Fold:
Amino acid sequence: MTLNISQLRAFVAVLDHDGFGAAADRLGVSQSAVSHSVASLERALGSAVLTRHGRPRPTAFGERILGHARAALAATTAIADLAAQQDGLPTGTVRLAAPTTVCQGLLPDLMARWKADLPRVDVALFEGEDDEVADWLTGDTVDLAVLVDPPPGPGVTLADDAFHALLRDDHPLAEEKTIGVADLEDDPFLLSCGGCEGHIRELYRRAGVPFRPTHRIRDVGTLLAMVRAGIGVTIVPGLTVAMLVPRLVMVPVDPPIARRLVLTGPADRPWHPAATALVTAVPEFAEGIR
Structure:
């Protein structure tokens, strides 16, 4: 049995980019070359690794080898990057995942800082919900992730992001210094289901107020549009301020509650050398935004 990296790279790319054509574009080769590489891998292994009806999915055997394929590609990339940075400068592409509000409210400035300080490191950004981001890091889809309230471990805290009530600017409470959740009882409550529900439930528990959301909304853009239309009010992380549109205001909630945003790498495998360089470059930046 003879395996090579190009076969594994094609297999993983087809899954990560939802098809042979998109994988070919990503790898800079023809679609037939990707198909040939996957077929060669299957011949070498004696078993199919992908289903080809509709959107490609791993077979049961493909699922079993996917983690090993990702690990082999990560190790190969890391070795090549170490060889390239023998002059001491970090080099390579780092895949970074983060929640939507972090991507919009925090990462643009941080990525600009990285670009200036580490010009030979490229960052490929993946945007997802809190649970998706954590799964991508565990499954080796990404090299780094911004996790919400992770257990103690390696990494650096980017921010302690306090929650705010989100209202229309003509709401009776829009000019208040702070707002308690009991103050929102007269309005329909729009719940963001993208990872913040636990913090919001805790706010209501502390206040001794029944938690009765009127609507459950996953997309942040939809949530903002519904508040702007006067359908209700909500509670969101402070970084949502980067996404505000006219007629919306944010007011701190009382008692305060915050989510801790931590930039970290995988807990069960070595970090990409360039990922380590990115995390190491963060502390001064993080201190400046708290």
Q: What stands out?
A: The first strand starts at residue 50 and ends at 51. The chain has eleven helices and eleven strands. The two ends are 54 Å apart (CA to CA). The chain has a mean pLDDT of 87.
